[in-house]
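ok trying this again, last paste got cut off
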Amino acid sequence: MKTITTLLSLCLALVAASAQAEIKLEDNSKILGKWQVTHESLALDREKKPLHVTWDFQKDGTLMTTGEDARSGIGEMSIPIKYSVADGVIKKQATPGREKYEDCAVVEMEGKSMVLKCKFLYFFMTRM
């Protein structure tokens, strides 16, 4: 009985770990194109803040970010950011024009939906 209980505990631990497993990218082929960033959150199970941002992953290593800053009143802006895929994750500029990069791992990818886990935030996206 003790063996069965231990075996069950191990199986449950493996299932829980695989639920949070990252999807390793070999290249940028699975992410190329335009994505609507619909929400951001501090954790998968926390409150999601709505966003109105588009990310366009281009073949040349440019991530064109388009969005509107409602607080500034500037209207829609497009900002090019460098990105690459290495070690199974997306490495994108943390700030435009600076050579500091952050890793963003694909946590979920199903159909037209993708969830990225970056340094501080999760981004919930839908392919356009």
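PB: full thing came through this time. DSSP finds one helix and eight strands in the chain.
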